[in-house]
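Sample entry as discussed:
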Amino acid sequence: MSAASLSDIAWVAVDWGTTHLRALAMDAQGRDLAALASRQGMGALGRDEYEPVLRALLAPWLGERVLHVIACGMVGSRQGWIEAPYQPVPCPARPVRLVRAPVKHPGLRVDIVPGLRQDEPADVMRGEETQIAGFLAGNPDFDGLICLPGSHSKWARVRDNQVLSFQTSMTGELFAALSRHTVLRHSIAETGFALAAFRPGLRAMLRQPETLSLNLFSLRAQHLLGQTDPAAARARLSGLLIGGELAAMRSLLQAHPVAIIGAAHLSELYRIGLAELAVAASCHDAAEMTRAGLHAIHQTLETNG
């Protein structure tokens, strides 16, 4: 980045998760000027390593002015740079107070977005709250459910730019554990996805979610008897787990519109599942919602001084 364009940087948006670190240089209007990324996620860092890692990544953008960074994700967890305490729901989608990280470099200021907590039933989220803020910044009148599929899928009930409540399903982590660390590992492909096998698994759980355990071993038996291949078994397992998750959410899904924020392939699987329940859903890119959320939070900070 040239010295001329360096002066255009108003602040930096950072998404720092367990396995990744992504930074966007933003101008005063919230436009992306440049991007940098690293694989140095918080999962591999000690507390005294965060500032050196961030400074090394942002070195091309550091100049004479103080560079303001707003970061979201697991960087604010108890094991992260500094804990950004959870905000209790219900609460505004955009936090009005961030947590200042300890920084020695005089040209760097780092604020971390807090996660959300719910006491009953007990639940937490960190990182997804920024994506929710990004979606609501562009859809301020949305009154419904936001689904954020992933290792720990989140379902947030939102209205009037507030997060009212949320629930978490360990669907993605269950998929990884079952396909890699149980007897099913011999029958599930590591890659590939046969969509035609996804729908039957999905429908089986929407009809009888209580039969999940029975259907899981059936995957192994079908493979041993030559009735399926590993790619189809992988897709059916995905259908079973997503179907079970949607079955648990059925009562809420019948009462509210749904927006899905996630990676394209996974979001499409959830959209297909929701369509089986006659629920229409819009899909939104997770990275774009994170960027939009950090921009919305920056705007709130600027407005509130």
Q: What stands out?
A: The mean pLDDT is 95. The two ends are 29 Å apart (CA to CA).
